[in-house]
Amino acid sequence: MRLARTLSVLAFALFAVLAGTSVASADVSAQVTKLTHSDAASRLTAAGITWSSSGGCSNRNNSTCTSFDQVNLASIQGAGVLKRASGCALVITGGTETGHASGTYSHWNGYKLDFRMSTCLTNYITGHFTSIGGGKWEANSGNVYYNESNHWDVTFYNCGGC
Q: What pLDDT score was predicted for residue 12?
C-alpha cells in the first residue's frame, strides 16, 4: 500500500508540474472534503460511533475538547468502515482539536482520529492489518493504525473502502 500512496503522490506532483504549480505550493487540502463538527457528529451518530471529550466540549481551539470541525469526509467515512468491519464499539477521543502533533497528515488537518483502546479493536487491528513496526499497523487501504498505549491514533489517507 505504500507503493499506491507513493504513486498517488507522484501523480499529484506530475499534475502540479503540468498545471504550472510547484509541488511545494500545491494545496493538498483542496483535494479533500471538509466537514463541520455538526455534520461529522451526525454522520458518526448514524454509524453508531460515539465520542468523548475530557472537557465536555467541541471547540477546535481548546485541547480538552473533542472537535470534528474541518475533519476530512474520508476520515469520518473511514471510521464508519472500521466500525462495520470490526463490529466493535468505537469511541473517538481525539479529532481536529489543537494539542496534537503538527504535519500534513495531522489531526488539525483532518486526517487523524483517536479511538479509545479496547480489546475488540486491538484484536481486529492486529488480526487483520500488517505490522509495519513501531506499534504501527497498515490496512490494505494504506490507512495507518498506531498503538499509542492508551488509544489508537489512526491516519485516514482515504475512507478505507467506503
A: 40
Q: Outline where DSSP puts E strands in the chain.
A: 34-35, 50-51, 71-72, 91-94, 112-116, 130-133, 136-138, 144-147, 151-155
Q: DSSP assignment, residue 91?
A: E
Select from 9, 32, 44 the least CA-distant residue to 115.
Answer: 44
**pLDDT block averages, 10 residues each, the chain of length 162:** 43 40 43 96 98 96 97 98 98 96 96 98 98 98 97 97 90
Give the DSSP letter of residue 89.
-
* 123 vs 25: CA distance, rounded Å: 41
Amino acid at 103: G
